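Homework help board

Subject: predicted structure for assignment chain

Our instructor gave us this sequence and asked us to write out the predicted structure in token form, then describe one feature. I got the tokens but I'm not sure how to describe them. Can anyone check?
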Amino acid sequence: MSSQVLWEEDLHSGSHWSGVIRRGTTLRMTDVDGGANVGALFYNHEDRLERYNMADTLKAQHTAYLTRGFVCYSDMGRILCSISEDTCGWHDTVCGVSNAALVADKYGATRFQEHRNGYYKNGYDSFLNELGKYGLGKRDIVPNVNFFSKVTVGHEGQLYFRPGGSKPGNYVDLRFEMHTLVVLSTCQHPLDPEAAYHPRYVRLLAMATGPAPAQDACRERCQENARGFRNTEMLYAS
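My token output:
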């Protein structure tokens, strides 16, 4: 993949981040130490009522998790981003994020007043902190993707978190097909069985790679994806 590096930064453990990633840009997220979780939300930057739709993403591609070759659909049948590369192999789509009550119950209660930046963060409030910068709020939080986390489902619907699903150095490349507002949180997965509060950090690297070519693994995965790319490309046709 021919690319030009645009910027790079570390997203610290238990922190949150947001920014606009333009069409034709690939964002690489790297799990530096292993065991990271990155909760992610996606919105059409130019019309934020259009956002990531978990149900359409899964049913259109006949899957329960994401990896290389899959895409993230909006609720308008367009493709926000594609997973063009992935060394992890499994990213959770169904479990959502932690909240303050869950974190306090699992790891203990902390407050900024006493612990300053060492207080325990949670994914829900992290999303709200970032969404507020763009005039969005609670009603705009939708089911998110948890990158680097593997969760399987039992025969009776039980959810099982699989520790060790992501190894040190694993990365996932998100190639953006739309101008997208991206919201990220590195708080621990809500089903993480680890007894201690121990979120991991990830490295972000943005590259100019161009949008999906005519022959592309994500486009060719299924007929639904081919239609999704066409819907997206029509939006940007001059």
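Reply (TA_rk): Your tokens look well-formed. For the description, you could write something like this. Helices lie at 54-61, 100-107, 112-115, 123-131, 223-235. That's the kind of observation they're looking for.
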